[in-house]
Amino acid sequence: MENLGETIPTAFTRRAEVADAVTVARFVHALVGELSGGKDLGMEAATRNAETVLADANVVAVMACAGDEPVGVIILNECSAIYAGGRFGLITELYVRPDMRSRGIAPRLIAAALQQGRERGWTRLEVGAPAQPKWERTLAFYLGNGFEEVGPRLRRML
After folding, report:
1. DSSP state of 53
2. Beta carbons of 74 and 109 less than 8 angstroms apart
């Protein structure tokens, strides 16, 4: 399917369940590959991880579909922090197939995430944007969808 920049009127979102682990793993595998410059997470590990994460009660996953075909996913984790006034959501993965980008899929996933957050009483939704300026388009997407910059995110592996 050629990307014409048109929205997909038949696209919809639904909760992703453990039964969707292979599809979610495929999307996250592709996301990690894009962000890491091709470092392979490995499909077997990604599928095991997806099964574990999707079974976690503090995780909400939403899949976007065009017709009956999955085209994207967003994974949300419930967190708690004093600065946030209690519980909030963290977007840990958001991926839309390259051939479906700029067609309204990611904003639908963000809208579904906001709805999930409201239903759970979250005070906010946060996301770590990838390094700039390489991922300038990703940052622009989030800013264009109502997010605001609050600083970089760091990590230390355990």
Report:
1. H
2. yes
Task: Report CA dihedral (26, 2, 35, 74) to the nearest 10 degrees.
Answer: -60
CA atoms within 13 A on the CB side of 73: 26
CATH class belonging to 17-144: alpha beta
pLDDT digit string, tens, across residues 54-93: 999 999 999 999 988 999 999 999 999 999 999 999 999 9
Q: Where are the domains of the chain?
A: 17-144
| DSSP per-residue string spanning 85-146 | TEEEEEEEEEEE-GGGTTTTHHHHHHHHHHHHHHHHT-S-EEEPPPPTTTTHHHHHHHHHTT
Structure tokens at 65: 């579909």
